[in-house]
Amino acid sequence: MNLQAIQKRAEPIFQRYGVVQAFVFGSFARGDQSEDSDIDFLIEYASDAKKSMFDFCNLIGELQNALGRNVDVVTIKGLSPFLREVVEKEKRVIYDVKSA
C-alpha cells in the first residue's frame, strides 16, 4: 500500500471526525515499510472540535478497518517533544483542509 492508497481510504474518515490535517510518518513515510508495519498518523483536529477519547478510539478503529493494518495515531498537541524533531523531518501530508 502506498501513500496515495492510504490517503484515498483515510480521507472520508478524517472528514467524519473533524480532522483538518493528517500526516503519515514512520516506515510508510520513509518508504521502508514491511508486510507487518503499522501506519503512523499525526493528526490535527479543527480548533472548535470537541472530541472525546471514545471518538479518538473510534477514529483509530475505522482507520484500521479501512486500511487493513494496525495504526498508531497521535495528535499534534499530544506529540512528545522528544519525537517532534523526527516526525517533522519525515512526515508526509495526506490530508489538509486547514490550508485550503
UniProtKB/TrEMBL annotation:
Swiss-Prot/TrEMBL cofactor(s): Mg(2+)
SUPFAM superfamilies: Nucleotidyltransferase
Signal peptide start and end residues: none
InterPro entries reported for this sequence: NT_sf, Polbeta, Type-VII_TA_antitoxin
Source species, domain of life: Bacteria
Alphabetical list of Pfam families matching this protein: Polbeta
Keywords, sorted A to Z: ATP-binding, Magnesium, Metal-binding, Nucleotide-binding, Nucleotidyltransferase, Transferase
Domain Polymerase beta nucleotidyltransferase: 11-96
Protein name: Polymerase beta nucleotidyltransferase domain-containing protein
The species this protein was found in: Heliomicrobium gestii (Heliobacterium gestii)
Native organism taxonomy: Bacteria, Bacillati, Bacillota, Clostridia, Eubacteriales
